[in-house]
Amino acid sequence: MIVKDKLLFGPILALIGGTCAILASIVAFVSIGEVEAGLVSMGLTWEDVGLPPQLLYVRFIVTLLWGVLGITGGLFALFDWHFGHFISLITGILIIIGQAIPIGTITITSSHGISLSGTLGFLDMVFLLFGGFTGLVADRYRIKVKVKEDMNWKGKIKK
Questions:
Q1: Distance between CA 127 and CA 98 in Å, rounded?
Q2: pTM here?
């Protein structure tokens, strides 16, 4: 997308990545209820599985924070504040780091590792990284896109 000779590909990708991270936080929040329902149906408690429920809430809050940070970076970049690209790029890196930090393992029927931050099929971090990188490259090399002034297509379409 091009507006006033400015390529908006990077900020739009960052906004999509931030939205995906917020959706991932909603999925993390819903999973808390699903785990609780599984525990109740089997007559277990949180102590039986060895994972405090507060860690799952930490995961939800951290993922929500990354999503808000990604959307903030995308909005800053959209309004031509150049540090918005850095925020988007750093948020994508923070999501990758959060995925690499294990905070516990939950075992009900099978063992599942729980990481510090959730992700929506790795789409959020890819969009944030690619959007931030694209915006930085476009700003660094002053990539401008020229659009013809005469965009009148009437009479140019042959019937």
A1: 16
A2: 0.81
